[in-house]
Design goal:
With 278 residues, this protein is of the alpha+beta class. The protein has 7 helices and 11 strands.
Length: 278
């Protein structure tokens, strides 16, 4: 990759990461559609469609067809040109980068113990709905979480819960599974949309609405994230802020604590291996 690549110089790039189970990328069409939307919005001329086949090939070439859980990562930059902020005058080919690798799946025992998060002010730009590689605020927030010895950080904007550093946030508030609305301030997560669909399918009351940190603390939170085990969303009662020690470390989270039969299974066990969406 050139040192003049605009992804390197400006984070002038979009990316996707699709989970895969036994070498089959999960909801890949949705990831590719979001990538295509990002490319269009940023006016990067590249076709996302062929990346579906690239994912399959990478799974095979990396011996991941039998791997329980892996990830297919893809990134497209505006390409390489002498450094200047505006787009290159003459068209340059986009740079496409992709890899696949095995991930270790979190054990059910670990899920049962729950996870903790701090809250951080959301100082990101107002287009968090575009999945760009410009992730410095997310990097700093996750590092703050590491230093606070918790698992994640939740972005708060004007008192309202937005999302985690690499996941959308759900909380059960007043008996309703609640998640922030899909505005320009959050990524419109594939997992988020799928979880809402599952709630509907299972008759679990669910709502997209703005909610406050206090509501989150009073409710039971869940972070939903593609890199995690989609079967058992996690979280805990009472979300700490920066100064608090995480209380209640031992809660499996709102959705995770539903009776087993009522718990959305966010993985291939829900969408059976019928070739449709997996
Ligand atoms: C900021 C942010 N929010 C939410 C998500 C979850 O998105 P998805 O469910 O589409 O993987 C991610 C995934 O990387 C993310 O980076």
């Amino acid at each position: 990759m050139s040192v003049e690549d605009r992804g390197f110089l400006f984070a002038d790039a979009v990316y996707e990461a699709a989970p895969a189970y036994r070498g089959r990328c999960f909801l890949i069409e949705r990831h590719l559609a979001r990538l295509a939307r990002g490319l269009r919005t940023l006016r990067i001329e590249a076709d996302a469609t062929p990346l579906g086949d690239v994912g399959d090939e990478l799974m095979a070439r990396n011996d991941l067809l039998d791997a329980e859980f892996s990830v297919f990562y893809m990134q497209v930059t505006r390409g390489t040109a002498p450094r200047t902020h505006a787009f290159p005058k003459a068209p340059v080919p986009p740079t496409v980068y992709a890899f696949a690798k095995e991930l270790v799946r979190t054990t059910p025992e670990r899920w049962e113990r729950g996870f903790a998060a701090i809250t951080v002010p959301d100082q990101r730009w107002a287009r968090a709905d575009i999945k760009t590689t410009g992730l410095l605020p997310n990097v700093l927030a996750q590092q703050a979480a590491v230093e606070a010895e918790v698992e994640d950080a939740i972005f708060i904007r004007e008192g309202m819960v937005q999302e985690g550093t690499h996941n959308n946030v759900f909380a059960v508030i007043g008996g309703e599974v609640t998640t922030a609305p899909a505005t320009n301030h959050i990524l419109h997560g594939v997992t988020r949309a799928f979880a809402l669909e599952l709630c509907e399918e299972l008759g679990i009351p669910a709502r997209e609405r703005a909610f406050t940190v206090d509501e989150l603390r009073g409710g039971r939170g869940d972070l939903l994230h593609r890199d995690d085990d989609r079967g058992t969303p996690h979280g805990r009662t009472g979300w700490p802020d920066r100064r608090e020690r995480p209380p209640g470390r031992d809660h499996p989270g709102a959705v995770g604590s539903l009776p087993a039969g009522r718990r959305p299974r966010l993985n291939t066990e829900v969408r059976p291996d019928d070739g449709s969406d997996v």
